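Hey team,

Filing this mostly as a record. A colleague (T.K.) asked me to run one chain through the structure pipeline before their review meeting, and I want the input and output archived in the tracker in case anyone asks later how it was produced. No errors, nothing strange. Just documentation.

Input sequence:
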Amino acid sequence: MEATYSDAVVNDQAFPGGSQHIAKFTISGMPEAGTSGEVPRVRVFLTQDSNGILRAQSALYMEEKIEKADEDVAMKDESKEGEAQADKSEATEGEAAKKEEDEQKKTGDEGEKEEPKKKKKKFKRVNLKVDAVYTGMPPRHIVVAQQSREANMAQVDRIIRETHDARNDLETFVYDFRDKLDRQLSQFAADEEKQNINDRLAKEEDWLYTEEADDAKKKIFVSKLDDLRALTKPIEQREVEANGRPNACNQLRTLTESYLTIVNGSDEKYAHLSVEDRDEVRNCCNSAQQWLSDQQEKQQILPLSADPVLLVGDISKRWSEVDNKCKPIVNKKKPEPVKEEEAKKTEGADSKTEETGDGDTKADGEAETSSKTDAEPEKTEGGEKSMDVDQE
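Output structure:
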């Protein structure tokens, strides 16, 4: 399949000139004839990209599907025809006459019946290979080779650029750290340590301007830079610790004092804390303050050029330990107060119990009084009777 400009385009004055032929697309992989012997049906999908280049995206061959059921029906029809011939030879003349009558009736009915619907054919898609050759362009294998060469050149450029950057990083570190060592880091390094580092920096600086450095690979510059950073890291770490230590100590001391103020005070909000809870908070805070004081005394003895004893990381760790232990105790919830209705019910039950006790006591006293009153008349009557007897 070939693509060309039309005659109208070629004859137009705006046509830049050149060949009328655009490209040739070779499609392979399709059969010479279809399944039923027909001419193969091929579909080719063409597109034009943003650069105006015509491209053949893909090609398909529509192959007809043959169902197995149709083959089985054909085999059955052949076997039935053989059986029908045997039956016909054995049929009688009377049956033949009846069949003729039936056939006449059937022919009349078939004229009235509609013709059966034809089955739709089914197709499947088969992908085909498409090779394109454009006018004025080299073959595909040459294009692929040139693209691979271009990728290799880009890789070489990237390595050269990264090597150059690594060399600049090493040179920059040598100059910057030498300046820092004479100014802001001077008090954090001993004289002997300064001399050793300066000698090493001078050695690397001299090496940078040799032919060996010009031919060196990226990994050599990276290795030398890592060695220098490892050599100078203790000095930079001393500066970081010295600048961050005062703030870390103040934070730990503020935390412990805040918790001690709570447990030693008389705030109603924390009145529900037990004696054991308060003692536990006091012990934790006092232990942290004592540790901080001891470490600060040891640190004050050391010069700034020595490795520190009290680290900011250790202080932060101690702060977290104190906060994790004291915070749950201080934030413990108050016990819920007894409701007024329950208190009134309890008082009412107590008063009823007292009234019942008083009533029983009074009843016992009245019973004793009545028994005494009944006994006195009996004595009086007895006395009168005795007096009467004496008179007689």
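Quick notes for T.K.: The domain at 2-67+122-137 is CATH 2.60.34.10 (Substrate Binding Domain Of DNAk; Chain A, domain 1). The two ends are 177 Å apart (CA to CA).
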